[in-house]
Amino acid sequence: MLNYSPFNQHITPSPRGGTGWGLPGWGLPGWGLPGWGLPGLPGFSGLLFLLFMLFSACTSSDYDTGDGKYSYLIGEFGHVYTNNEAKITRLVTDQGDEVPFAQPVERDWAATPDSLYRAYVQYERKADSKGCYRMFNVAQVLVLNPYDRDELKEEPKFDPVGWESMWVSSDHRYLNLSLQLMFGTTDEEKLLQRIGLLRTSTVNRDDGTSELNLQLYHDQNGVPQYYTSTVYVSIPLDGLNEGDELVLTVNTYQGEVTRRYTISP
Q1: Mean pLDDT value of segment 50-55
Q2: Distance, CA of 208 to CA of 245 (rounded, Å)
Q3: Are 52 and 61 in contact (CB under 8 A)?
């Protein structure tokens, strides 16, 4: 079960437990850069994302060996598109490949017609006679835009998370993170974790490039920590120029982790 609540919106989980977070519309206000929009995406003013209980991580035994029951699946990051009935009909991967689905599906987090959402999708490798693919699962990926501390109404929290990996998307539009959050059942349904991204400083260098320093905001908010679930998030890179450097700091259970990414041509 997952609840995505940018203050006044609530998302209920999709079947099979495969779901994620919304991409309701985005600019880069925390970077001091001009924002940009995508057709069909409503505006979004919330600074943080609230959530509880996420989809489970996939293991190598499920996908990599070729012998598991899911070995016929492909997993791809990209954007899924809804039609005029708010049904997800196709995926455009980060590599630019278009994947039409044999059966359109509905998800509560993709309720806006003629829109697109960032997602991680698992589908069968082999297309049918019409060139369409059977979708097995679609999980919406949280897109984090950085904000300045003075835009928050309270002191930020930096509760630890599990660090797995960081990589740039194939189209160089996003910096992707694989994190692990701790969850557990509770009688208090209003207990929601919060996650976001803060800009701590920007350094303008003599060579004309900039260094953008970011820190992951995470508030466990009293949610029990009985088990972990993998969370994928994406940080937009649009607006940064060649040579600019993004420095991300994350508080993990093993201590503070800092990773750097330099914008390449």
Answers
A1: 45
A2: 12
A3: no
